[in-house]
Structures are given as structure tokens and as C-alpha cells.
Amino acid sequence: MSIAVDTVTFAAGDSLIVNGVSLAVEKGKVLGLLGPNGSGKSSLLRLICRLRKVKSGVIRLGGSDIASISRGDIARRIALVEQQATTDTQVTVMDVVRLGRTPHRGALSAWSVHDDKAVSEALARVGMHGRAGQLWQTLSGGERQRVHIARALAQTPSELLLDEPTNHLDIQHQLDILGLVSRLDVTSIVALHDLNLAAMFCDSLAVLQNGEVVAAGPPEEVLTQELIRQVFGVRAHVQKSSVHGRCNIQYMTD
User: Fold this and answer.
1) Other Cβ atoms within 10 Å of 115 Cβ, number
2) Which residues contact 207 (CB under 8 A, 6 or more apart)?
3) pLDDT tens digits for 57-66?
């Protein structure tokens, strides 16, 4: 497994945020992380890239306990795209994306042709190459999200963690970004709210509720009407889509 989480627990003060979570992602696959607000999705992503310290349990990257991997090696391997990231500093789109190369460069390293190529390709992949010289502060929320994803891609990670990457994006860019992630030759864990997008683009799903995994497996096995009612508190009709072959969810009102 590329990423394996084994009975991991995390607490903030007296509050248990992640409670005995176990899940695994095969190399090159996309795992969708679902659950209501406050279910522990964001905390779990931060634990995997060691921005938070587990209370108990083990997280492994390629079979190695992350506790035994240096922070530098983790930074070169894992890229995290968080929900909100901003700055008051006057920086351009290019400046932000160039930050993705930081883990690969020593303190005295000169900027290289390889760095330029990684940044240029990352910008092109998210459709922002033509905005490279534009100031960050002038971008819309959706454009900023695409730039953050470009910064992560410039990092050339083997594992990619995305926390609600489709927030602020219009439908076209939601489809574009998740389509891109699903085609990347990296292992990805994507926290999402949209169940239909998760079903379309993820190889497997894990559903969190109150910090625990309550269901895991292929989308068509996980996204049942009963689970959606119990976890998300809504009535839904689930059927196989005649367009993309994955399950499609239609919500119902009382």
C-alpha cells in the first residue's frame, strides 16, 4: 500500500477528533474521504502528512512508519492542498507555484531548468499558465484554488492530499480538477462533500462520522441509500448512471 492508516487516534485537548481510524490506499489510486462537517476528514489528512501527531496507532508510507521518516523526505513526497490559504503579501501566481519546489532545493541551490519545467507544467495542467504574472490578490476564490493545486503539482509528489479541492470552483472546473487528479500517476486522498463527484472520480471511498470510519470500499458498495440517510441525514435515491457507469445520487425532500 502507498498509504496505510492503522487504528489511528488523535485528540485535541479532551476532544477525540479521530478515533481508531484504519484505511489504505493502493499506489496510484484515488481514495475519497467523505463525511459531515466535523467528522475528522481534515484532521486525518494533516495526520497523514505529519502536521499533527497521532495519539495512538500507526501511519505508513510505502510500508515505513511516518514517525521514522524525516520531515524533509515527507515534504518531498507528500503535497497537501488545504481548504483555505491566503496571504497579504504582494505575490504573483508564479511566485505561489514556485513554492512547490522548496522541498527539492537546498538552502544554496540555484533555480534550475528542471524547476522551471515543473512549475510551467503545473500551471498548464490547471489552466493558469496565462495568469502566471497576475497578482494573487486579484484572483477569484476558484482561481486561487487552482493555483494551490498547481503549487502542489509543482512539488512532483508521489502522494497528494486534497482538502475540499472543489470549493469555490464552478462545475466545469470541478470536473476538470477531479478529472486531472484521477489521471495523475500519484496516490491521492481527496476530502469531498459532493457524493456524486466522489462516485465519479474516486476508486474507493471511506466515510467518516464522529471521527470513525463507518463504511469503506468501492463507491457502488459504500454509497447506499441507508448510509446516506444515517450519516448525512437526507433521503436519497441511488442508481447506476447510464452516462458514466458509476452510481448517481438524487436527493429527495420530505
Assistant:
1) 17
2) 34, 35, 213, 214, 215, 216, 222, 227, 231
3) 999 998 899 9
